[in-house]
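Good morning,

Attaching, inline, the backbone tokens for the sequence recovery test we're adding to the shared suite. The designed sequence is right after.
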């Protein structure tokens, strides 16, 4: 297990219950970098290669458009385990 793996085990998961925010064994995660969800983990267990390549538009109240808005994250080309913020949409 490298330093990045250890960091993931300590992270909070996007959409997880507030009283149980940590990652689960046997699940696959991507680290969100920058933007309103910086530092959170996204559970991508079961996603196809095509889905992973497209990134995600995640609902958040923390983005530029407030409640109901979405914030977009895309895989980092040199490190696909980290997804970079690409902007917000209403």
């Amino acid at each position: 297990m490298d330093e990045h793996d250890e960091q993931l085990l300590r992270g909070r998961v996007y959409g997880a219950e507030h009283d149980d925010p940590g990652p689960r064994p046997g699940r696959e995660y991507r680290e969100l970098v920058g933007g309103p969800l910086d530092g959170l983990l996204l559970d991508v267990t079961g996603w196809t290669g095509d889905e992973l390549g497209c990134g995600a538009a995640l609902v958040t109240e923390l983005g530029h458009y407030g409640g109901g808005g979405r914030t977009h994250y895309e895989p980092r080309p040199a490190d696909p385990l980290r997804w970079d913020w690409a902007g917000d949409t209403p």
